Amino acid sequence: MLSSRQVQLIHYLEEKDGYTTIQEVAQFLKVSARTVRNDLDAIEENIKDTNCKLERVPRLGIRFQGDETMDAAWVLQENSGLEQHREKRKIVLIILLILEQHTTIEVLAERMNVSKNTLVNDLNEVTAYLEKQNVQVIKKAYFGIYIKGREEDIRNVLFHFYLKSSQDSIVNITQLIQNLSPICKEMAEKFINLVEDKMSTLYADESINELNYMIQVCFKRIQLGQKIEHMNLEELCQENKDYLAVLESLFELDIELPKEEIYYITLLFRSAKKISGKFLIENIEDEKIVVITESIIREFCAITNIVTNIDEEMEKKIIMHLKVAIHRLRNHMEIENPLLEDIKYSSSFIYDIAEHVLKLHEPLLGVKFPKEEIAYATMYFEVVFQQYIQVEFNPKVIIACNGGIATSTLLKQRLEVMMPNLNIITVCRVVHVEREIGIHHPDFIISTVPMKSDLCRVLMVNPMLPESDIEKINNMYSSISYKKKNEYLASRLEKSKKCNLSDLLQEEYCQFQVDLNQWREAIKLATVPLVENQKVRQEYADEMIHVVETMGNYMVFIPEIAFVHAKAESVYENSLSLLVLKDRIEFGSKVKGFVKVIVVVANTEENSMLADLISIITKGDNINRLKEAKSYKDLLNLKDL
Known about the structure:
Blueprint: H1 4-15, H2 22-29, H3 33-46, E1 53-57, E2 61-65, H4 72-80, H5 86-99, H6 105-112, H7 116-132, E3 135-140, E4 144-149, H8 151-168, H9 174-180, H10 185-199, E5 201-203, H11 205-223, H12 241-252, H13 259-270, E6 274-277, H14 284-304, H15 312-330, H16 340-346, H17 348-365, H18 371-388, E7 396-401, H19 405-418, E8 423-429, H20 433-440, E9 444-447, E10 457-460, H21 467-492, H22 501-504, E11 510-514, H23 519-532, H24 540-551, E12 561-564, E13 575-587, E14 593-602, H25 609-617, H26 622-627, H27 632-636
Parallel strand pairs: 7-8, 7-9, 9-10, 11-13, 12-14
Antiparallel strand pairs: 1-2, 3-4, 5-6, 13-14
């Protein structure tokens, strides 16, 4: 096993164009020449069964020559740099079991560069994991170790680890696949390019990488005699253009495959994301997807009150995306979305609406939409919402000065240039601010002189707008526009399911008339009932505080009510808790506001609890009644209009 210094030594030698000396290496690593020689001996021992070469030539020096065809042990060391972590070993072990027909404990231990005992322990864990994927590990005396299961399930295991490795960088498995596959990466790329040309389509780069990987996997499994057998050949209609494109591309490459395999590869292409191309309605099922997708879009527009017909090109992109997603879900191909948590935080209500709308249509489509796909739909719906909503979310601002026309004019012009979306209602003298607030009801005041107002927030700036002041205004602008958008979406979100407050908030999770003046302490106290009832981990409170500190107080989208939450890793069970303060307190560390109520939202997965709670809070005068609640009885008396 290579040490971190030995891996560093290899990287150093690889970067050298020619030979280098022991002394130069020793100086680089800050070790003795003897230590370098010992490290070189260890490297030679570790690469003896690979195609890598370490040259040690008297009077010339040393040189390392790498090779792309490195084995599993080298892949592990290359990716760890320190040691073979168990998780990495297990992934490589699974790949070797799937892509090599029969093997033994001894062979696997040698390939993995571990002891037999370590290999047996790893194999037991791998066996348990694969059983959950409907794949069996068979061990027979005098016959070896091999796997057994439905071919689609076996290939989906490899697809899962491809997605996992590309997202988490656990281990680079693509090199290992390339080493074992009977076709090279370049041949797979040529095949993909031919299909793209015949279908007049361009696939996204991430999809091309997926296709390349899975095509190499397919050819290796076929080489082992493990073929797809359960495809419905009735669907292999000669009018199916993407099937014909795959068939013709294989013919041009002089490759012959069974019909079932051609159709499986066609499904891989159908399940790949396109960035351009014609949307083809190939069959009745495609037509059904189009009709249902149009219904999904209409439902979203109805909820958000978008009355304008959306752009045909945007509608086409949404339909194409959902068609691909549905194919992936139906064929048990995972969907990864690295932006999932960011989307759930930054577009929480659009996410809720997307979830609501998609789940309404699940019975018709015969799929269950995972949170990753809901987040992708949210991205499209966010674009539609921003483009077509007729409601104004830009903050309204009054500029206040001390009477200098030149100063106020300069400030107004600079703001209009730097922040064109800022809605500047008027410019007035400080003495007239209260009157103008009563007339125009601005969201905040930008003042060039010190001033206070009990009716509106005030930002004092230098008329020349240095960078610090621009950042201050931008933070306020973002916070208010986000709040306005969420207030609007909260009011528009209609749920068919009705919930009582007692279903959402149990009495033991609610605290009233609490006397505190620090928002961090308030979050911690609000979380206590959930910790005590084992709904969340102890650290969930600190994680929520960190979210507020780093992302701002965007979660105060109903005046003086903060809906605080963090990532799901520290949540055991979906739950809500409530803290009503005796007096409102300052909240947030970037753009500060005031809160009177804190709701802790703990989700392990998506659910309607928060949306249902908000739908009750926002009815009638319930917001004010909640802020003044002194007991659980007061809470239950909120009107459910």
